[in-house]
Amino acid sequence: MILFKKAAELITYLQTQKNDGAEIGFVPTMGALHNGHLSLINASKKTAALTVCSIFVNPTQFNDPKDFQKYPVTIEKDIYLLEKNGADVLFLPDVYEIYADGTKNLEHYNLGYLETILEGEFRPGHFQGVCQVMERLMNIVKPDHLFMGQKDYQQCMVIKKLIEIKDLKIKFHTCETLRENDGLAMSSRNTRLNDDERKKATAIYKALSFLKENLMQKDFTEIINEAKNMLTENNFKIDYVEIADADNLEIIHHYNKGKKLVALIAAFQNETRLIDNMILTNEHNLK
Ligand code: AMP
């Protein structure tokens, strides 16, 4: 694996690879890598000749400065895992490499409805920051294929919209969520949970599974309230529990046969905010 810290050097290297006909797969991350990230590396390796991973904790997407300061950093272990899993290139820029002119007065993206709901509502400015960094990274790497996790469902939709707005020729791949044995979605933030919080955190997966199992049994308001109870009984402070149209994230209140539905949850286990989602309609699962 080759490590680049400078964008200009990476651009030159990737251009020679492209001139030789190599397709480039890109896996952007914020590090503290786990098997979920590594599954994206694997997906890229299956599709593209050259897999580029980036590790950059993007300051502009953190609406809570404490969250940014506490974001886990495990760079030596990350490099080891990437090498072991066959990544070809690691891009590890510092903040000036990405935001040469600073992080104020950056481009504003018109994300419309997508930015007004769920993560957009509870983390104001978050998706603007995600787009600001992703546009820069995609301009540097110029990938043919981009791999991102369904774990961040709304983020996938935002980046697909960014690709559309900027008319980029990039094939977007949504990769399934990897989970721990008890169902908890793998996340860099899980390392912040103490033993008690970690045990309680599995309530998110249980609540999502409950929604899926009871989708056609009762009114959505009723099952959502029961799912919320499952979370609060486990000390979660809830931002949202919603069922939405999986194609556009319109919030849905009644079962409608044939519509692809997704349940989405965001909640705090003390200081740690966790998100997860599940496609509720079996016929629409990724696999
Ligand atoms: P992050 O480092 O949290 O920004 O995540 C980098 C990429 O990994 C994003 O596309 C995430 O959606 C994806 N990802 C995070 N957790 C998982 C998981 N448990 N399974 C699959 N992909 C994941």
Strand content: 15-25%
Helix % is 25-40%
Structural class: alpha/beta
Query: So what's the overall shape?
Result: globular
Supply the number of helical segments. 11
Which distinct ligands sit in these coordinates? adenosine monophosphate
CATH superfamily of the largest domain: HUPs
Q: Using only CA atoms, what is the Rg?
A: 19 Å
Q: Give the number of DSSP strands.
A: 9
- The overall number of domains is 2
Give the biggest beta sheet: 6 strands, parallel
Distance between the termini: 30 Å
CATH class of the largest domain: Alpha Beta
Give the rounded overall mean pLDDT: 96
Could you tell me the CATH topology label of the largest domain: Rossmann fold
Order of helices and strands: EHEHEHHEHHHEHEHHHEEE
For the biggest β-sheet, the strand order reads 1-4-3-2-5-6
CATH architecture classification name of the largest domain: 3-Layer(aba) Sandwich
Low-confidence stretches: none
